[in-house]
Amino acid sequence: MFAQKHLLDLESYTAAQILEILDTAESFRRVLDRPIPKVPVLRAKTITNLFFEPSTRTRISFELAEKRLSADVVNFSASGSSVAKGETLRDTAENILAMKVDMIVMRHPDSGAARYLSERVPASVINAGDGMHEHPTQGLLDMMTMRQKLGSLEGKKVTIVGDIAHSRVARSNVWGLNKLGARVTVCGPPPMMPLDIESLGCTVEYDFGRAIEDADAVNVLRIQLERQENQIFPGNREYARAYRLDDRMLARTKPGCIIMHPGPMNRDVEISSAVADGDRQVILEQVTNGVAVRMAVLYLLSGGVRESLGQDL
Ligand code: CP
Predict the structure, then answer these.
(1) Which of 10, 103, 177, 310 sits between 20 and 30 A of 167, alpha carbons compared?
(2) Average pLDDT, the chain
């Protein structure tokens, strides 16, 4: 049995648990390539997707994963709900659970919201991104894609470039990649670099060229203007001048280095269109892997066992 009830972060997961999810996801990835990409393993389960923040990829990906596993799915978004009338997160969740829901997938603007919910409701909670804290399924799908392209992550160098301070994707990647033995470098302008980031076990490099020149993978992040309380960065043009991944900078990477982006992309700000559509990027493969990773997480947290998956598939 998988020894976790919730997926709140990758910080509290072991390397063995992360590998268990990634290996299970590979089995589900093969299911997605079948003519009928559906299995009955969560037929008796009801899952609610609670989204208090906008999302395209994560929301659709979770819903597809749930439907591919034959679960019953209920979607909730804060706009148009009783949250607009002042209902608290706890009351909202308890009312949904009173309708006999087994699992909750939640995206929320506040760091720690998923943990708060997990301590107050009996259902399994999966964090689909909480404020500036973590986005664990994004970290997992990024690692799945890197493993497919690079093999074992042990000793590989991964550079994450962008708005590190506001990035839950960066934090989940740093935690997860460290546990799998990769070397992580974070790069971005000083105002976008958290003071304590090295304590997570990564190297800080402010010079973009130096950060990417020996990387096996470069993960490009978006500037999160919506999370900047004060305007800490002068603007897109200054950012692009120093940190945009374009053909000139791509030429400084190793030939086998893959280019990743979690989306949504700001084309020609952090990544040029030529690179975003070029032959080194794996961006849409990340999206496809996201469905498989989320199927694996839902399956394992609901009591599924990878060894018995063969019969169910
Ligand atoms: N990568 C990601 O979280 O994208 P969305 O905000 O569209 O879900």
Answers:
(1) 103
(2) 94
